[in-house]
Each structure stands twice: as structure tokens, then as C-alpha cells.
Amino acid sequence: MFPNIWCPGCGNGIVLGAILRAIDDLNWDKDKIVAVSGIGCSSRITGYVDFCTMNTTHGRALPFATGIKMANTDLKVIVVMGDGDCSAIGGNHFIHAARRNIDLTAIIINNMIYGMTGGQYSPLTPTAKFGSTAPYGNIDQTFDLAELAIAAGASYVARGTVYNVRQSSSLIKKALDKKGFSVVEIISSYFILLVKFIRNAIKISVFRDSLMKSSIEYSYLRYHGH
Ligand SMILES: Cc1ncc(C[n+]2csc(CCOP(=O)(O)OP(=O)(O)O)c2C)c(N)n1
Ligand code: SF4
Ligand SMILES: [Mg+2]
Questions:
Q1: 69 falls in which pLDDT band (50, 70, 90)?
Q2: Roughly how many angstroms between the first and final C-alpha of the chain, as a whole number?
Q3: For the chain, what are the domain ranges?
Q4: For residue 217, with 0-12 CB atoms within 10 Å meaning exposed, 13-18 middle and 19 or more buried, which class applies?
Q5: Is the pTM of this model over 0.90?
Q6: Candidates 3.20.20.370, 3.40.50.12280, 3.10.25.10, 3.40.50.970; correct CATH number of 12-218?
């Protein structure tokens, strides 16, 4: 597992651990698992797992994953995305994967920013918060990714945090076990942002704390019995 490319304190490693514990609990054959990611710090997760893996292009992990699942429905396909990857460039793929309710598990690491490329704001950056492309504060409204997934038709939607690791791992386990399009959003930490945009730090922390408390499991179990 070490060394890895992530900054000390980054939530990506915590999410990786949560995913691995969930898979271990399910006792899945690692040769039957395909982990697919796009581009971003979070997407580097696929580089640290001993499954079949595919590190695709920015925003396009879901179409690749859809193709893999269609070609071999026996495979367990897990898609790891960042908030930018999933909700900006990949937003169209996300809503349509949910609408089609394809049997994939999407795990979105929401650090509320474009991490890899230097702190540009994403569709999940809170309104009025700062980013390298929002020096006077983000003027846009924010998606609620979980609500978006539900509205688009996902079978199972949950939100966890990197501060509640056991809960996040159990949410991921349920999502993996669920037929149809399952989504787990994990609210994550981003320490580099806090250092770079120090005036933003307290506000982001307050916002994040409120989300931490709102860690929720949404049960849209359209496929009972699976
Ligand atoms: C088509 C395309 N556009 C832009 C980029 C540059 N790019 C790489 S990663 C990234 C944003 C990543 O943010 P996010 O998905 O939130 O992941 P994080 O790094 O925060 O984990 C961008 C814009 C790219 N690689 N490809
Ligand atoms: S830049 Fe941000 S998202 Fe990327 S590894 Fe560092 S803390 Fe994590
Ligand atoms: Mg991000």
C-alpha cells in the first residue's frame, strides 16, 4: 500500500481502506472484480488494488464500466470517481447510468474541489466558498449528489464520510451487494485546500461538519430480494 501519491491527511486512503474492508466482508473473488476510475487524485485508487482495473479518461469511468458489465455480467464492477469527475465532466454519464439502473456501484469521493489540478471549484463546491477559480467566492449553487442520484433512478443511494469510516464501509458493502445502480457519496477531507485558501478553511470546515452529521442512508430499494 505504501508509498502512495496522496498528500498526508487526504481522505482518499481512508476510502480505499473502507472499500477493501467491505469487499473482504463480502468474501468476493478478486479476479471477478473490476475497479474502474476516471482522472483525479481519487481516481488513483485503482492503482492500489489487486483487482482487474481500468484507469480511464476524466469523467468517462461510467461508460467504460457499463461496457465491461454488458460484456460480462458475472463481473462485479466498482466505479470510483471524484466530485469533479462524477458531477462536472461526467455528470451526463452519471444521471444516465442511474436512469438505466445498470448493475454498477459508484463510489464518489467528494472533497468539494478539483484536487489534482489545483483547487478549481466543482459543482459540489459550496456556494460562496473560495477556490483557485473562484477568488471572490463560488457564485453557483451546489448539487446534492445523493438527491440527484435518487431523482435519476438509482437503486441504492447513501452518503458517508471519512470521519465515520466503519459506517462508510458498511454503506459501501450494502451498495456492492445491491443489484442495480448503487451510489455511495463519501464526504472527504482536503488539507491542501485548507493550506492554500486559509481564509476559506473555517467556512469549509463548518459546512463539512454539518454534512458529516447528515450522513444518511437512503433506501430506494426498487429491487427487493437482491
Ligand atoms: C478531458 C479532461 N479535462 C480536464 C482534465 C484535467 N483534470 C484532471 S483531474 C481534474 C479534476 C479532478 O477533480 P475531481 O474529479 O474532484 O478529483 P480529485 O482530484 O479532487 O480527487 C481535471 C479537471 C483532464 N485530465 N481531462
Ligand atoms: S491534492 Fe488534495 S485530493 Fe489530491 S492527494 Fe492531495 S489532499 Fe488528496
Ligand atoms: Mg474532488
A1: very high
A2: 33
A3: 12-218
A4: middle
A5: yes
A6: 3.40.50.970
* Gyration radius from the chain CA atoms: 16
**Atom in ligand 1 nearest the alpha carbon of residue 43:** 21
Query: What tens digit of pLDDT does each residue of 139-188 get?
Result: 999 999 999 999 999 999 999 988 889 999 999 999 999 999 999 999 98
CA nearest ligand 1 atom 5, residue: 58
The edge-to-edge listing of strands for the beta sheet with 216-218 is 52-55, 33-37, 76-82, 105-110, 182-187, 156-161, 216-218
Break the chain down into helix, strand, coil percent, rounded to 5.
40, 20, 40
Confirm or reject: Cβ of 11 under 6 Å from ligand 1: no
Instruction: Give yes or no for residue 185 CB within 6 A of ligand 1.
Output: no
**All cell numbers assigned to 15:** 476510502
Judged on CB neighbours under 10 Å (0-12, 13-18, 19+), 183 is: buried
Taking the C-alpha atoms of residue 160 and residue 158, their distance in angstroms, rounded to an integer, is: 7
Three-state DSSP string of 174-212:
HHHHCCCCEEEEEECCCHHHHHHCHHHHHHHHHHHHHHH
What's the rounded Cα separation, in Å, for the pair 125 and 114? Answer: 9
Q: What pLDDT, on a 0 to 100 scale, did the predictor assign at position 22?
A: 98
H/E element, 110: strand 105-110
